[in-house]
User: Which sequence fits this backbone?
C-alpha cells in the first residue's frame, strides 16, 4: 500500500511521522541553546558544532560498530566546542556573536576535512520503538516509529524546566543570565557559569548532530544540517527561553519540514518542493516578529547580547 492508496489521509500521517523525526535534532540543539542563553550568552556556533557532532558520531559509530558510542563521542566533541567558545568569550572586549560565527565556520571546515573518509561507509543506526506495530498500515507504522533520542529529549525538556524553576543550579544560571553585577554581588562567578552552560549546550548540539547521521537521514554528508543549528536560535526566541516551549516549537518546525515529503507521498508532483522551504520561511517570520519591537524579547535574559 502506498501513500496514494489512502488518499489525503496520508498527509497528516506523514506530517506526524515527519514532525517526530525532523523535530528531534531541533529539540536537542534548541535545548542546548536555551541553556546557554539563559546564562546570558548566545552561541551562533552551534551550526558548526552540530555538523562536527554528526561527523564525529558517525565516524566513531562506524569504527566501534556502536551507535551509542557514536552519540557519546558527538556529545564530547560538542562540549569541547562549547567550552572553547565559552573560554574565548570570557576574554575582555570579545563579541560572542562574532566568535560564534567564526566557530561555526571552523567546526564545519573541520567536519568536512576529517569526514571525507566516512561519506561512503555505513555505520550502525540508533534504535527506535515500533509504537505502530498494532496497525497494518505502513503509513501508521512509519509515523509511530519513534527514535529513543526523541523520548530522551522530552524527558530532558521537562527536567530542564524543573531545574530552572525549582533548583539552586537553575536559579544560579538565571541570576547570571539576568544580571552579571547581581551575580557577582551574590558571590557567583558569571564567567564560570557561562563557560559550563555553553559547554553543556554544545554537548546537546553534538547529540543533535549524531541523531542526523545515525538515524535520520542516517548517513554522513557535508550538507546534513541544512541550517538547523542557526534556526535553533530563532526557535529559542519563539519559545521564550522556556524548555517546554522549545519542545512544542521543535515539533512545529519539524512539521513544517515534513510538509514537502508529505505532499509528495500522496502524489503531488508539481510545486511540492516549494514546501521544503517552510522551516526557513517560519524562521524568517519569527525573526521579523521579534525584531519589530520588544515583542517576544520581553522575557529574554537581561545579559543576553540581542537585548542590548
Assistant:
Amino acid at each position: 500500500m502506498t501513500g496514494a492508496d489512502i488518499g489525503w489521509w496520508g498527509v497528516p500521517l506523514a506530517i506526524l511521522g515527519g514532525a517526530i523525526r525532523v523535530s528531534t535534532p531541533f529539540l536537542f540543539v534548541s535545548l542546548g541553546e536555551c541553556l546557554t542563553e539563559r546564562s546570558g550568552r548566545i552561541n551562533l556556533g552551534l551550526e558548526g558544532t552540530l555538523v562536527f557532532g554528526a561527523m564525529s558520531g558517525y565516524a566513531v559509530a562506524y569504527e566501534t560498530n556502536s551507535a551509542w558510542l557514536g552519540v557519546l563521542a558527538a556529545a564530547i566533541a560538542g562540549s569541547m566546542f562549547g567550552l572553547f567558545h565559552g573560554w574565548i568569550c570570557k576574554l575582555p572586549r570579545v563579541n560572542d556573536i562574532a566568535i560564534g560565527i567564526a566557530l561555526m565556520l571552523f567546526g564545519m571546515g573541520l567536519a568536512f576535512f576529517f569526514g571525507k573518509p566516512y561519506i561512503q561507509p555505513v555505520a550502525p543506526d540508533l534504535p527506535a520503538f515500533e509504537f505502530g506495530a498494532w496497525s497494518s498500515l505502513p503509513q501508521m507504522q512509519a509515523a509511530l516509529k519513534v527514535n529513543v533520542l526523541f523520548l530522551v529529549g522530552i524527558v530532558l525538556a521537562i527536567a530542564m524546566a524543573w531545574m530552572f524553576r525549582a533548583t539552586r543550579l537553575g536559579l544560579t544560571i538565571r541570576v547570571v543570565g539576568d544580571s552579571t553585577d547581581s551575580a557577582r554581588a551574590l558571590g557567583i562567578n558569571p564567567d564560570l557559569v557561562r563557560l559550563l552552560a555553553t559547554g553543556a549546550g554544545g554537548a546537546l548540539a553534538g547529540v543533535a548532530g549524531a541523531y542526523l547521521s545515525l538515524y535520520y537521514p542516517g548517513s554522513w554528508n557535508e550538507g546534513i544540517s541544512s541550517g538547523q543549528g542557526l534556526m535553533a536560535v530563532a526557535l529559542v526566541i519563539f519559545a521564550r527561553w522556556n524548555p517546554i516551549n522549545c519542545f512544542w516549537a521543535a515539533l512545529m518546525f519539524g512539521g513544517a519540514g515534513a510538509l514537502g515529503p508529505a505532499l509528495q507521498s500522496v502524489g503531488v508532483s508539481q510545486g511540492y518542493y516549494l514546501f521544503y522551504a517552510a522551516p526557513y520561511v517560519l524562521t524568517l517570520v519569527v525573526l521579523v516578529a521579534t525584531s519589530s519591537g520588544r515583542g517576544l524579547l520581553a522575557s529574554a535574559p537581561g545579559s543576553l547580547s540581542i537585548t542590548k
In short: The longest strand covers residues 128-130. The beta strands are 128-130, 145-147. The radius of gyration is 20 Å.
